[in-house]
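Re-run with default settings, no changes from the original entry. Doing this only to confirm the output is reproducible before filing.
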Amino acid sequence: MQIREICEYIESWAPLAWQESYDNSGLLVGDRSAEVKGVLISLDCTEEVVEEAIKKGCNLIISHHPIIFSGLKRITGANYVERTVIKAIQNNVCIYSCHTNLDHSPKGVSYQLAQKLGITGQVLKPMRDVLKALQYYVPVSHEKAVREALHTAGAGNIGEYSNCSFTQEGLGRFQPSTEANPHTGSAGILSEVNEVKVEMIFPTHLSGQILSALKAAHPYEEVAYSIHSLDNSWQDVGAGYVGTLEKPLSPEEFITFAKKRLGLKALKHTALPSRPISKVAVCGGAGSFLIKEAVKQGCDAYISADIKYHEFFDAENQCLIIDVGHYESEVMIIDAIHDYLSKKISTFAVLLKSETNTNPVFNA
């Protein structure tokens, strides 16, 4: 198995197109065609993690956070980023990162955090501009074959529903030129064919393969189709997660509950409200940008990390804000990546979770 295949498995769950513009997800170090000897999964990629991979015979590290975030102008070993990259290259260790694309993906980071807290719900702020609509015309005789080819390519999936489409029969007209090679009709003669107009949605990042599937399965030399960008949000893809607890808890009980579920010795929070905690929003990593969204949706509490002093005021006492720490809010994604790949490559022998604690913050 090649590194490329592991990358493709990850990107079918968390497409690179879903990462933020400032991010740097994907294969950061190494050769995509190299054979995989072993995979080590970690939240961060540090010198210690690379050393662990070497000792355990792993030549691919999959980390959530990218070791190369901003551009490297030189690699001299002047800081931990450069030293980590040097060590990886010297020992033929590839490094792959799935960061904000995995934050946004179904059952990604925030979903895993919600699962630790027993929260059942949905994405807090769904993404927009990630769906398109395809409309095409096909003769009745080939309607099913073309439609099924597009479904196989990834079109027509809406939430928990697959193979979704709309069809409408009509009469198609066309006149081939003398240079054409028509599937139906003759050059220079106006033809009429019983056709079907088919419509279905698809993820924007699959545009290339959707069009390839359409043209490969369609019988016409020139396929009549149109693609439209949609303003629709995609409920399964986006930032944060919101839902309800298994049962309401008092604020004091909820603080204790969160610390126990996340294995925390301490956390930071705003003043405890007088009402019970039932509706809770979460966001793994730095999530202060979603505080107002949590308030807007009537959440009793919002759990995230890296919240600055003045950002705690943004809730205006309408929602309990809790900062559990960046590492603590995301470390569970290691298990999720491991479980996902274990199902995809069940016969692969060396698929390990890193034992290196990369958390740079300590609570005294």
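The chain has a mean pLDDT of 95. The chain has three domains: 3-101+332-353, 109-126+237-324, 131-232.
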